[in-house]
Amino acid sequence: LSQIFYEQHQNYQDVYEQIWGQEQALKDAAEARETQGIWKTVGGVVLVVTGGLCIAATGGAATPIVVAGWGIGGGTIAFGIADSVEGAQDIYYGSMGDIDSISINQLKDVIFQGNEDAYYMAENIFAFAASAFIPISQASVAGNLTFRSGSTIVAKEGISMVAGELASAATMNVTGNQTASMLAGMLAGGVTAQGLNGIDGKFGISAGKDYFGDLMSPEDATRYNEYWRELGIGSDKTWKEFIRANPEKNIDDYFRLVNEQSPWPDGYNPKPNMLSIGEKMNIAMSPEQSDNRPGGWASFDSYSSENAVRNSLAITSEFKSEIDRVNVYEVIKPLPVNEGTVGPQIDLMVDTYFPGGGSQIQLNVAPPLRMKYLKYIESVKIGE
User: Fold this and answer.
1) From CA 238, how far away is CA 259, in angstroms rounded?
2) What is the DSSP secondary-structure string of 211-227?
3) Counting Cβ atoms within 10 Å, is residue 18 exposed (0-12), middle (13-18) or buried (19+)?
4) Taking a C-beta distance cutoff of 8 angstroms, is the pair 294, 374 a contact?
5) Is the overall model pTM greater than 0.85, yes or no?
6) Is 167 helix (H, G, I), strand (E, B) or coil?
7) pLDDT tens, 114-156?
8) How far is CA 342 from its chain centroid?
9) What's the rounded Cα separation, in Å, for the pair 362 and 323?
10) Is the dihedral of CA 50, 52, 56, 62 positive or negative?
11) DSSP single-letter state for residue 115
12) Can you tell me the distance from the alpha carbon of 111 to that of 249, in angstroms, rounded to the nearest whole number?
């Protein structure tokens, strides 16, 4: 009988070896899937922690840094959770010897429509950006963010992300492991950012309130300044004028002024009042403006030049492109108004900061009804 079994084994040896080889290949594939799942889960946890640290690191930073930190950190956490969930499924299926069941990654499958190349490219961008942003954002304290320091932050972030991408690509070529390459890129990005912080601190690249255009050629600085101005974000010149006039303010206050352009000073509440018959006021007029069509803003102050009018009353070129005279009007009927101090304005069209500070009267009547409350007295011609 043993001879018969021996002969059958010899006759079917190739079949047995093929079956054993297939079983071993399935076992190896399952183990590889389990190992891949472990790597993916570890990578996902690292991403979640890094995203959280990225958000936490922006505590006390200026508002633009906080917004960027939450965006980068939040995206990194989302990728980390998706990878961790997918990795946990791979670990389970691999441990059960299952190489056929598909692990679910909602972010990859829904947002990226199953495109793994696009998914991992986006994941790397967030991962490298977050790892570099942690040390960089810690140097951005609220009140100290300027055009110069902000531009330096962008430059450091860009250089660190490039370093991360290079390290990631090199690791991928050696290991073929997506998670390992991502972690290597994150490490390289963070180390590079830390090194750039050291260089910045040593040479004071982002220090002070000056715009970093002084490190460029005059031509490049002008182009960069025009780029900011045309986008309506601000400009180097108006930022310098603003901070010179308001040394206690910061970049957040500047951006708020650019975006909101309140006619009153920041946090100021005008005083409601009723002007009495016989009171007089002055209104700046443009050449094409009829004396019987005064604007809705006036002042008790007198002016002899357009420059004085614009600076004191903060009249932007968008509001009046030209001012050729100041008209005097007398109240002939009790007039409801708001009174107070003129707030500063930033006129990006002419790249100028107007400090304001003059007296201001807001006429609380509709334009067609204003001459029922006012009487035109005279026009005072003004020069530049």
Assistant:
1) 14
2) -GGGGS-HHHHHHHHHH
3) exposed
4) yes
5) no
6) helix
7) 999 999 999 999 999 999 888 877 655 444 555 666 677 788 8
8) 30
9) 19
10) positive
11) -
12) 42
